Amino acid sequence: MAPLPTFWAGVLYVFDILSFSSWKSSLSLQQPLLKIPIHHQAPKHPIFEPPNSPENEVILCDYSAMVGFEFCSTREDRSCWIRNYDTGEEYNISTDYEKYAPTGIKRHYDLYASEMSLNLDGVEMHNGQVFNQSYPGPKIHACWGDTIEVTVYNNLEKNGTSVHWHGMRQFNTPEMDGVNAVTQCAIAPYQSFTYTFKAQQYGTSWYHSHYSLQVCLCGVK
User: Fold this and answer.
1) CA-angle at 163, arms to 157 and 164, nearest 5°
2) DSSP state, 158?
3) CA 157 to CA 112: how far, in whole Å?
4) Could you tell me the strand order of the sheet in which 90-92 lies?
5) Which of its termini does the chain have fewer beta carbons within 10 Å around, N or C?
6) Within 13 Å and on the Cβ side, how many CA atoms surround 5?
7) Residue 22 has what DSSP assignment?
8) Looking at beta carbons, which pairs linking 191-195 to residues 24 or more positions away fall under 8 Å?
9) Is 48 helix (H, G, I), strand (E, B) or coil?
């Protein structure tokens, strides 16, 4: 007769687990029958501040998708960027960045094209055209392999605009090159456009408007 009570005990146990009883609400207060140790380990992907980054700004490279890789660049030797010590795979200064780049994160920026008074050479210019009310415009930071997303809002009253990301090959994203009348129409006044492209190359470059005489509507990226 022993198997029968055991069977019903099992049925009641399963029913109790699936029911929303007061016993279930108090389960968290009970001592677990088996303690399973939890190991808090460092992430298996590199997140780091790059060497020689600006002293007054914090920039973190985040390669969450690069599981198994580690940061291998130093102030003294920047020839290596990240490396997988298990597989030997590495992204370094010899990597053909026209074909290969690590997988970074998406970084979003907003640029507002507007007018403001400027005095750059001793002559007042009442209708200077700027990004984000500064000249030059704000810096855009990204790490090698990041996806850069920039929404440009055109607040100029009487001018269209566009933004060319100087020095970026725009591999597979030619429509994001920002040359109006070639790869896109100009952004009309009080309209916006979002550029999305990958930081396939690394280094310092600059961006500028590619509409008419707005070449100095610019900034550093």
Assistant:
1) 155
2) S
3) 12
4) 69-71, 80-84, 90-92
5) N
6) 2
7) H
8) 191/154, 192/151, 192/152, 192/153, 192/154, 193/151, 193/152, 193/162, 194/149, 194/150, 194/151, 194/152, 195/148, 195/149, 195/150, 195/151, 195/152, 195/163, 195/165
9) strand
CA distances from 35 to 31, 74, 82, 140 (A): 9, 42, 37, 49
Angle at 111 between CA 107 and CA 117, to 5 degrees: 150
Strand 218-220 versus strand 206-209 pairing type = antiparallel
Task: Dump strand ranges (E) for the chain.
Answer: 47-48, 61-62, 69-71, 80-84, 90-92, 106-118, 125-131, 147-154, 163-166, 192-198, 206-209, 218-220
Quote the mean pLDDT of the chain. 80
Q: What is the pLDDT of residues 102-149, one digit of tens each?
A: 999 999 999 999 999 988 888 888 888 999 999 889 999 999 999 999
Q: Mind listing the domains of the chain with CATH numbers?
A: 42-95 (no CATH), 106-220 (2.60.40.420)
